Amino acid sequence: xxxxxxxxxAKLEEFMGRFVQDMGAAAxxxxxxxxDKLGLYKAMADGEPVTPAExxxxxxxxxRYLRExxxxxxxxxxxxxxxxxxxxxxxxxxxxxxxxxxxxxxxxGAFQLIAAIVKDEPHITERFRSGDGFGWHEHDHxxxxxxxxxxxxxxxxxxxxxxxxxxxxxxxxxxxxxxVADIGCGHGASTILMAQAYPASTFVGTDYHExxxxxxxxxxxxxxxxxRITFEVSSAKELAGxxxxxxxxxxxxxxxxxxxxxxxxVRSRLADDGTWMVVEPFAGDAIExxxxxxxxxxxxxxxxxCTPASLSQEVGLALGAxxxxxxxxxxLHEGGFTRVRRSAETPFNLVLEVRP
Length: 356
What we know:
Elements: H1 9-37, H2 40-43, H3 52-59, H4 63-76, E1 80-82, E2 87-89, H5 92-98, H6 108-119, H7 121-130, H8 141-163, H9 170-176, E3 179-183, H10 189-197, E4 202-207, H11 210-223, E5 229-233, E6 244-250, H12 259-269, E7 270-281, H13 293-311, H14 325-334, E8 339-345, E9 349-355
Parallel strand pairs: 3-4, 3-6, 4-5, 6-7
Antiparallel strand pairs: 1-2, 7-9, 8-9
């Protein structure tokens, strides 16, 4: 008979405390989605104190539901509560993160993405048993919109301010007029931001998901840059046109079934002095480097989204969202590139300058 393990009560108590925090965070996700969808945060964005009744009048929602929602948000630290007058308030910092879509700190898209992952759990559970993949296009619709809204704040904060300037000579080309391809563009947030920043350049955005390309075309029309962007339905290995002065892949290389094949295609379409900017989730090269809050988020995304997506495609290399710079460089070298340099980074992203 196996010996009964000795339980360290302090460790158990610490773990249970962590569990309560995690359970609260998970339970908060749908409430953030509700606040976002119903415009509750936007209705509080002026920072003025409101009672549940006043918020109900502003939004057309029922007071009793809003009272519970506001209390949960206050318990989460997402709104402030003053017991002296029974009012709730969205502080400026909270409003920046919750109410302003164009803020570089905007977070509701992340919760929309998480809600989509939860909806698709039964499908991924079955893939654990079968080993089959689950294509990006097979996920709940909220994933596509949530992903764009999750990544766009990072692009707003970094793309033209630091990532593109970190590449040797690229900004000068963009200002003069360059030809750019954005592979795996999704709803086109990154492509549109570049087109707005560099009006002399022309852009091609590609994605294999037809619904995302349709959304990207509509977004380009709204942004007034549709005359300089062409959005096309195609896989990375089908990239056409060129030669391109700049090719970009934002948080998508690791999702590809055959990233080496994609790299070879990019190499064939890149100008002799062109640059490939590969933006990937931040990760160290060893598992232990990524056992932290950021790695926790990305390993979850990798399990539910990235690895299944890769396994659903030909080759199915399944790099995963925490591949690390060394493994990414191996793939890029195998695809025909000789120079790979980390040109920039954030707590969430690695930016690699890849040259022939």
